[in-house]
């Protein structure tokens, strides 16, 4: 369970303050897959970073699995896996396997756990052929698969993905989508941002739409389709942005 209550965030830009998030509130249930939608600069990444304890909100609170994201950040970090856009968090001079081993050690995994988990992820993402090659020479898609594996190495209960299929080819994107289904079946809680509406419709139970730092819709997809009398998520999304904050369930 993730509980976000009245979260706001301001950044100082020279002598002025820029508001990235404005009194955002919503809950994510255990085992729910939530799509985070919004145009560039809407506040999606700031919100995900706040949940992941990488940014401290200016006001409001975030609870992750019962732990306060500010007061108990170390406990929150143990329970989440994160991947933010192009920031893979990988070390170019290490091989894919060495990168995964390094992060496994950080999470306190045993040698056996580490070995089994890396083998599972290598098979899942088709990385066995280049597992022992240095990441610095990898293509964007190869790096992205290793980065997703890094986020999942400790088998977290809560997973945050920011544009997770960026740079992936069709086959790898389909593997990732199948992974989301499998993670959901295991009771994982997932929030991911995406500009690919078909991906959101295929994978998500509900959506959170953010516009200029505010939530303009939070609810299940079927309820949204009924409310808008349409199943065209692209159209609904653009319409919501034009109308602004009208309904948050």
UniProtKB/TrEMBL annotation:
Domain ABC transporter as annotated: residue spans: 2-237
TM regions (residue ranges): none
Keywords associated with the record: ATP-binding, Nucleotide-binding, Transport
Gene3D superfamilies associated with the record: P-loop containing nucleotide triphosphate hydrolases (3.40.50.300)
GO molecular function terms noted in the UniProt entry: ATP binding; ATP hydrolysis activity
The family this protein is said to belong to: Belongs to the ABC transporter superfamily.
Entry-linked PANTHER family: ABC TRANSPORTER ATP-BINDING PROTEIN (PTHR42711), ABC TRANSPORTER ATP-BINDING PROTEIN NATA (PTHR42711:SF5)
Protein name: ATP-binding cassette domain-containing protein
Lineage, uppermost ranks: Bacteria, Bacillati, Bacillota, Bacilli, Bacillales
């Amino acid at each position: 369970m993730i509980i976000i209550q009245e979260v706001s965030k301001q950044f100082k830009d020279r002598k002025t303050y820029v508001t990235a998030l404005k009194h955002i509130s919503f809950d994510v249930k255990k085992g729910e897959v939530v799509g985070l939608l919004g145009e560039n600069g809407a506040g999606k990444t700031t919100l995900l970073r706040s949940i992941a304890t990488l940014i401290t909100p200016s006001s409001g609170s975030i609870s992750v699995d019962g732990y306060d994201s500010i007061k108990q950040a170390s406990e929150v970090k143990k329970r989440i896996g994160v991947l933010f856009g192009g920031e893979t968090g990988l070390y170019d001079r290490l091989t894919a396997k060495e990168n995964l081993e390094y992060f496994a050690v950080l999470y306190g995994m045993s040698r056996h756990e580490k070995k089994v988990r890396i083998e599972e992820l290598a098979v899942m993402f088709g990385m066995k052929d280049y597992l022992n090659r240095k990441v610095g020479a990898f293509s964007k898609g190869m790096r992205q698969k290793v980065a997703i594996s890094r986020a999942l190495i400790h088998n977290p209960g809560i997973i945050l993905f920011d544009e997770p299929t960026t740079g992936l080819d069709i086959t790898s994107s389909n593997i990732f989508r199948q992974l989301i289904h499998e993670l959901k079946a295991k009771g994982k809680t997932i929030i991911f941002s995406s500009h690919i509406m078909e991906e959101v419709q295929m994978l998500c139970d509900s959506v959170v739409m953010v516009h200029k730092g505010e939530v303009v819709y939070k609810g299940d997809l079927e309820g949204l389709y009924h409310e808008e009398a349409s199943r065209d998520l692209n159209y609904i999304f653009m319409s919501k942005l034009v109308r602004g904050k009208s309904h948050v369930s």
